[in-house]
């Protein structure tokens, strides 16, 4: 016998409750998508970044269909509140991401916000932006123990192979 | 009044007489003064207009006072001993969990959580992006002037290569930092 209503259980629900209601949530996400297209790197609460990521990537997929496509233009018109960004979307971002099949954004976790709420923050950026990179891929130096041991092994093997 | 089924006709007659007497008494009471309310009367052979019955009926109309409801409130029966208190307070689910995911950032040496960016390195990058954005703002002039070409940032003494043909160039008046490699 069911002891609780199905509406009160949220197993498997994927969409978060943001803002004041469904329309407010869409407006919030729309503002965030506009900001991302304008600034190409924004620092937002982690939940909002997570929600917004899917919408942003789908918008870029629509933009890849081309300028002349009616549906793509209507999508861009709805999702970008600042109309000069529609030009940027179709002429810059669609061209930049043409060779990529998917995943145009990068989302990274930031230390908690300094405010009293200590919110979990994330930075979300479009790949290929002109700003300095957040993660610098570092190669191990020659001086690490493992690399020195490998170097010694390689030299021993050469000395053995020569005579 | 609980009406029992009288097994004998004699008991029945006795009860009927008693009931009649009670009703008679009640009627007398009514005729004497203003009609009292017909509340749940006590099963006592007595005239209706008792001083207690009026109080009882008025109290039934009022909300039960705190003095009565205290009898139905939850309260601890015994003092919790310090041993029991210690068991509850020091139970592992009440203690603060120890974090084991703290590492040292290889770039700057500050502490960072494993799945989070280093705070110092991020602040460094954030400051530089802010300065670049100020330069972009100066170049664009007003609001809503997003360019339709890509952007490239060049530092002191750097010339645009042939890869940066049609791009908008943002000049920064400083030496190129080591963590911002030119692609």
From TrEMBL, chain A:
GO cellular component, one term: mitochondrial large ribosomal subunit
Recorded coiled-coil stretches: none
Domain of life of the native organism: Eukaryota
Keyword Ribosomal protein: yes
Cellular localization per UniProt: Mitochondrion
GO molecular function term, any single one: structural constituent of ribosome
GO annotation, biological process: translation
Entry keywords, A to Z: Mitochondrion, Ribonucleoprotein, Ribosomal protein, Transit peptide
Keyword check for 4Fe-4S: no
PANTHER family named among the record's database cross-references: LARGE RIBOSOMAL SUBUNIT PROTEIN BL17M (PTHR14413:SF16), RIBOSOMAL PROTEIN L17 (PTHR14413)
Designated name of the protein: Large ribosomal subunit protein bL17m
Species assigned in the record: Eubucco bourcierii
Automatic annotation (TrEMBL), chain B:
Gene Ontology MF term list: structural constituent of ribosome
Database matches in InterPro entries: Mitoribosomal_protein_bL32, Ribosomal_bL32, Ribosomal_zn-bd
Compartments in which it is found: Mitochondrion
GO annotation, biological process: translation
Keywords: Mitochondrion, Ribonucleoprotein, Ribosomal protein, Transit peptide
Domain of life: Eukaryota
Function: Component of the mitochondrial large ribosomal subunit (mt-LSU). The mitochondrial ribosome (mitoribosome) is a large ribonucleoprotein complex responsible for the synthesis of proteins inside mitochondria.
Name of this chain's protein: Large ribosomal subunit protein bL32m
């Amino acid at each position: 016998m069911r002891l609780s209503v199905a509406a009160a259980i949220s197993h498997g629900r994927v969409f978060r409750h943001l803002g004041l209601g469904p329309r407010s949530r869409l407006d919030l996400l729309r503002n965030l998508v506009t900001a991302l297209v304008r600034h190409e790197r924004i620092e937002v609460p982690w939940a909002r970044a997570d929600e917004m990521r899917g919408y942003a990537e789908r918008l870029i997929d629509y933009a890849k269909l081309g300028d002349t496509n009616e549906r793509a233009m209507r999508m861009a018109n709805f999702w970008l509140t600042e109309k000069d960004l529609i030009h940027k979307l179709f002429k810059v971002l669609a061209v930049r991401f043409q060779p990529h099949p998917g995943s145009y954004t990068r989302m990274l976790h930031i230390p908690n916000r300094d405010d009293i709420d200590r919110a979990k923050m994330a930075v979300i950026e479009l790949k290929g932006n002109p700003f300095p990179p957040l993660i610098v891929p570092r190669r191990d130096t020659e001086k690490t123990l493992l690399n020195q041991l490998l170097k010694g092994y390689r030299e021993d093997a050469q000395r053995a192979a020569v005579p | 009044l609980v009406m029992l089924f009288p097994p004998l006709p004699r008991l029945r007659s006795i009860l009927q007489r008693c009931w009649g007497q009670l009703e008679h008494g009640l009627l007398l009471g009514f005729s004497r003064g203003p009609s009292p309310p017909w509340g749940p009367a006590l099963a006592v052979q007595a005239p209706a207009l008792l001083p207690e019955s009026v109080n009882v009926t008025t109290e039934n109309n009022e909300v039960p006072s705190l003095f009565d409801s205290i009898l139905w409130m939850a309260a601890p029966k015994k003092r919790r001993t310090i041993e029991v208190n210690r068991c509850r307070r020091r139970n592992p689910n009440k203690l603060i969990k120890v974090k084991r995911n703290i590492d040292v950032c290889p770039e700057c040496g500050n502490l960072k959580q494993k799945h989070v960016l280093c705070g110092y390195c991020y602040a460094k990058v954030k400051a530089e992006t802010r300065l670049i954005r100020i330069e972009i703002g100066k170049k664009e002039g007003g609001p809503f002037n997003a360019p339709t070409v890509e952007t490239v940032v060049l530092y002191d003494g750097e010339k645009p290569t042939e890869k940066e043909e049609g791009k908008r160039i943002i000049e920064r008046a400083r030496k190129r930092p080591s963590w911002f490699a030119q692609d």
